[in-house]
Amino acid sequence: MNPGSSFASSFRGRRVLITGGLGFIGSNLARKLAGLGARVTVLDSLIPEYGGHRRNLRGCERKVNVQIADVRDRHILPEMLRGQDFLFNLAGQTSHMDSMTDPETDLEINCRAQLTLLEACRRHNPGLRVVFASTRQIYGRPDYLPVDERHPLRPVDVNGINKLAGEEYHLLYSQVHGIASTVLRLTNTIGPRMRVKDARQTFVGVWIRQILEGRPIEVWGGGQLRDFTYVDDAVEAFLLAAAHPRAVGGVFNLGGVGRISLRELAETLVDVAGQGSFRVRRFPADRKKIDIGDYYSDFTRITATLGWRPRVGIRPALARTLAYYRKELPHYL
């Protein structure tokens, strides 16, 4: 599949709903789809603790219909879903620590609301094409590396358990009720419009903020290996998953170009920024309990099935993200 030509034919004039569409990945996806000529609606609660931000759609507000509502509100879902051709389901609570201190809210958003959403699809738009944003967190501490889709699923926190349940609901409704769904397991997505206010979405956002504010980066541990997906690559995966018939009912890992330790990542960020410093400290006890150690993905399944592979390496990913926040940081604090 040639993304440049096929995406336009797949999405031009089609009706698309993106839950969590004012968030980091959702807004980048909305911008791309609007540029392809899709009729895009984004649904977002704009709860301050989560990733939604109106600034994320700056410049394309007239091309995207924004609805401020919560996916936990079952009464708004039928109206939102009727007539849609595609649903990109990115609404979620992403903080692992918040899931441990407030597990019931995580349950409501990442589990119960997902079932309610799928029931609304079954009742009001069973022909909808759905792509669900899952997470590598469901694997827990890896038995082997790189982690492929056959790896045992052993979440180490409440967030991972609830995301796994949401994932299983999508696969079940695809198999039993014909709600054609695909699951993407994301890993450490970074780029413009990610949350930098705190670490609820990604620690890299906090590092970007610290660098630009002239504060040293805090690296916990430092030896852990990770892979990082640039947001444009993640968006391409979502579009491929929605457009490709072979993706229906499938589960696919995303991944990044290579792997890097957290210490090396901090060194690279300081080098790319041309400023800043970092210090390594021991892992906080509360975080250590739910840390998964080394992790990087095997994404050969999505490459073989859909032709996706990450294109943007860590240095250009950091450079593009830094360039965005050098201009935009005050709007995201």
Topology:
Blueprint: H1 3-11, E1 15-19, H2 24-35, E2 39-44, E3 64-68, H3 77-81, E4 86-89, H4 96-101, H5 103-124, E5 129-135, H6 158-177, E6 181-186, E7 189-190, H7 203-212, E8 217-220, E9 225-226, E10 229-230, H8 231-243, E11 251-253, E12 260-261, H9 262-273, E13 278-281, H10 285-288, H11 300-306, H12 314-328
Parallel strand pairs: 1-2, 1-4, 2-3, 4-5, 5-6, 6-11, 7-10, 8-13
Antiparallel strand pairs: 9-12
Helix pairs in contact: 1-8, 2-8, 5-6, 7-9, 9-12
* Proportion of strand residues: 15-25%
The strand count comes to 13
Order of helices and strands: HEHEEHEHHEHEEHEEEHEEHEHHH
**Major beta sheet summary:** 7 strands, parallel
CATH fold assignment of the domain at 3-190 and 230-255 and 297-311: Rossmann fold
* Backbone shape: globular
Low-confidence stretches: 1-5
Find the CATH superfamily of the domain at 3-190 and 230-255 and 297-311. Answer: NAD(P)-binding Rossmann-like Domain
Q: Return Rg in Å.
A: 19 Å
Q: What CATH architecture of the domain at 3-190 and 230-255 and 297-311 would you give? A: 3-Layer(aba) Sandwich
Oligomerization status of the protein chains: single chain
Averaging pLDDT over every residue, what do you get? 94
